[in-house]
Amino acid sequence: MPNNADKPAVLFSSGLGGAAAFWAPQLEAFEKRFRVVTYDQRGTGPDRSSRLPEGYSIADMADEAAALLDRLGIESCHFVGHALGGAIGLEFAHRHSQRLQRLVVINGWGRIDSHTQRCFEARAALLKHCGVAAYVRAQAIFLYSAAWASANAERLAAEDEKGVANFQGADNLRTRLTALRTWNGSDYLTTIQAEVLALAAKDDVLVPWTASQLLADRLPRGRVSLLAEGGHACTVTNPDASNTALLEFLAA
Fold first, then answer.
1. How far is Cα 202 from Cα 181, in angstroms, rounded to an integer?
2. How many C-beta atoms surround the C-beta of residue 161 within 10 A?
3. Residue 2 has pLDDT above 50, yes or no
């Protein structure tokens, strides 16, 4: 979704779900100062009927983000990625460094943590043995804090219904999940020269906040910012604090 073409561009890249709509809580705050670009990742959204190729990787996703910028006539941008989207951002920084201004990785990592692997293994097993509806219903457990989920039960029920109706497909999800679980940026993190903010919520049950600290420590110009609460989807559950941290970094 491009707009404000005369302003600096910021590309938002979502996580495993791949949906541009994930960034709705950020749009109003950012459109005042930036040209905002969000997109449904390949194999998701309207493109979910197209099967992803064998061996599809995070590097492929980063190249697709660069191709999107080409189509929009954007030479360079800030990049904000959540989880899988953060891995895409780091790969983008590695493969298309001349096109990157600043990068934000939200609840992400440079090398996947053992606890996160355990969570993804459980989710993959749930999809395989229990089906799409069970997989979608369980997403809230990993995305949100228990208190927030409890207070937003009706909203989550509506999200579940929409999630099943717009599910990206089991094959595409497994392909994207394999790409995510096998990706490792450790070999090139020390070569990334862009300023990078690792933003994390300390109550994230999917990705330990320490993964963000480790990532920031490996990057030559990395820094970490911690939110006390918000869960894995902190940009949704705690948008004010998340937007403040993002804007302070990107607009500096």
1. 22
2. 12
3. no
